[in-house]
Amino acid sequence: MLGLLVSTGAGALDVNVVGLFPNKAVVQIDGGALQTLSVGQKSVEGVVLVSAERDSATFDVQGQRMVLGLGHAYMKTDTSNASVLVITDERGHLVTTGEVNGIPVRFAVDTGATFVTFPAGEARRVGLDYLKGQKTLVNTANGAAPAYRVKLDAVRVGNVTVYGVDAVVMESASLPVALLGMSFLNRVDIKREGGVMTLTKRY
Questions:
Q1: For the chain, which has fewer Cβ within 10 Å, the N-terminal or C-terminal residue?
Q2: Which tens digit of pLDDT belongs to each residue from 189-198?
Q3: Which domain does 179 fall in, by range?
Q4: Distance between CA atoms of 61 and 13, rounded to whole angstroms?
């Protein structure tokens, strides 16, 4: 089950995606009965299914565009303390969707990574001119590997935005997604309870 808790002007909506089908999604909203939404259909709670694919769906929740996909994070938007909650996906990885310099990026949360880390293909998609960065070596499970060190203008996850974040780009990496490493995480307070991680911006 995939979920997203969306804070709106009228409170918070807990949207759980139970099933995905072509142009349809089965959802549970605020713990209510399961309901099937077709593309363009609006629930009584104000949730509109914008699109549905095999592994992701896009919703409009009272004017906020949200995407849920396989392994997508459970996020709580809370302007009072700017926190984001991330739960484990079915493979036991903490994952979330954020932004780098305004471009959407899917992250795997990795407290063992010193820096926010990109495979070269993802870095190019985001628009990072990493070849102009400082060439360095980073330690991996397979030993030292060449990388390029860069500075990210801004990294945003949920309501948490951190500016001037150090990152590395690895041309040899076979990472499926970028890693949200300690150069971001050490600037937030982290609380872990079971499969849920809470990040609260410190400064």
A1: C
A2: 888 776 677 7
A3: 87-186
A4: 8
pLDDT of 203 reads: 55
Same-domain pairing of 101 and 174: yes
Kindly state whether residues 56 and 144 are assigned to the same domain: no
**Tokens describing residue 111:** 């407290």
Q: What CATH number has the domain bearing residue 48?
A: 2.30.30
**Statement to judge: residues 25 and 53 lie in one domain:** yes
* Identity of residue 199: L
Q: Do 94 and 177 belong together in one domain?
A: yes
Q: Give me the sheet containing 188-193, strands edge to edge.
A: 83-87, 196-201, 188-193
- Among 78, 98, 103, 31, residue whose Cα is nearest residue 198: 78
Written as six digits, the tokens of 142 are 């397979």
Which run of H or of E encompasses 126? helix 120-126
Based on the domain organization, do 104 and 173 belong to the same domain? yes
The H or E element spanning position 185 is: helix 182-185
Average pLDDT rounded to a whole number, residues 100-126: 91
Residue 92 backbone zone (phi > 0: left; psi -120 to 50: alpha; other: beta): left
The amino acid at residue 80 is: S
Distance CA 69, CA 3 (A): 10
Angstrom distance (rounded) from CA 101 to CA 190 = 23
